[in-house]
Amino acid sequence: MNTPLSDHIPQEAFDWYDEYAHDLMDRRTFMKKLGGLAALGFSMAVLTSALLPNYAFAEQVSFNDDDITATYEEFDSPDGYGKGKGYLAVPKNVEGKLPVVLVVHENRGLNPYVKDVARRLAKVGFIAFAPDALFPLGGYPGNDDEGRAMQKTMDRAKIQNDFVAAAHFLKSHANSNGKLGAVGFCFGGYIVNYLAAVDSNLISAGVPFYGTPASESLRKNIKAPLMIQLGELDKRVNASWPQYEQDLKANNVEYTMHMYKGANHGFHNDSTGRYDEKKAELAWQRTIEFFNKKLS
Question: Which candidate, 208, 274, 230, 221, places its Cα nearest to that of 248?
């Protein structure tokens, strides 16, 4: 949670964690830098508890909530790793066709936070599916560091194709209304941008949270409206925004960008000290309103 403790941790620590989490800094260097903050009165236990995820905080909708049904489903991915698997959350007691939303995890596999995001969507009336990119290697290992290391060994093109296959799988769900949204976080934000760019007709709306854009050569294909969610302190991802915005404008793409003042990369993830409750709730409210408008 966004506690007073995390508010007082120097911003450098959050920047170092972002570099570490995105393979720009090794673990030894990251821990050494954190150790240097001891002179400011922080113990390593305090620092790591604020920066590293605690998934006990990340359950907003119970896995056995009476309003949803959650199952694991496999799908074919001939251009990816052959088979994929994900977490499907479906509203109970809702008649007729429903909009569907693909939920894309960070660069560490399908952790509890992302499954909870799928349940949050189902709770408000969407069919949500959260694939696990690590399924070919046995699935999310229960630890983010291990998951990150596993995903790093995988073929990026095949992972992307797995998410394209997952999007088609979800879009063709028996209770789908045929309109597919996509929301993703960090690496998942990139995948949302990629899905919008790789096939103009694949998604009907996308909400990338702090994700970098698809390659410049693909951006001309984007037709789906986008809601871009960025944290002001996320220098690494924000550096890509001016050119991306220029390309969206050049191609007449409908988009909105929200920049959340004082927010870090990962501000929506309620399992770490980067979480900003007020800004995360506002961003999520905007996301739901956007999907209701574009996918109904």
Answer: 221
